């Protein structure tokens, strides 16, 4: 099930090591996450060209769409409301095809997720059922395009899985059932595509325990790739702690059909009640790469070029891009 994605990723790394335009490319950057927003629906072609030209110059081969729908509103009954406007996703696919890149597509993300995972298990099941139904309904609208797109490379689960909430037997069972059911729905729409899931650590579980958890989930569900977010940008882990967890994940995954790929956070979260961030210093990003690349046979993913390392992200993001391309 994962062979196509593995071949894609290895091809990306092989191409990256010969690209002269970026020191990042030489060090094995395979791709980036992409977070669709409503503002992007108004982007003109010049802005899309700028973003994808940036991807190209950095040697990006794969784009992981974080979500196709981000819900932040409810109706009078308290149920989530969705806007099934796939125009941004269609643009990403179109430009990826033009630039010879691959796209892994996420689903629906409900902004109450972080609150609901602390709720009673039965309430959590209802929340995950809403995510499953919303994701399936949204993907139905673009399934015909995905079926014929040479850029489409697989599915991404938009819900990020931490190292504390899901470790118990009950919650692990709920998670595995959700992943298997949603994967079955997606496979019915576009068959035989690999499944990727994001993991991160709050430093709660030991690297060995976290690795065993993901080996169990991967074997049960058929997960093809675990994307391990390094957590450096949000200060969950220190740079030097990340390889300890990557080592634990890799050791537990030996002999399985699931790969582990690091996700390098290229931002620094700012203080405040709401999430705000700015591009990280290049020196820190280089150290993240140095620590994580030994555990990245398929290269690393960056989170995220559009916001923090491109002209569309603002002056600081463009400045970081120029530093990278200049090899400073």
UniProtKB/TrEMBL annotation:
Keywords: Signal
Listed SUPFAM superfamilies: (Trans)glycosidases
Xref: Gene3D superfamilies: Glycosidases
Transmembrane regions: none
Signal peptide bounds: 1-25
Domain of life: Bacteria
Pfam family, one: DUF4434
Limits of the DUF4434 domain: 29-312
Protein name: DUF4434 domain-containing protein
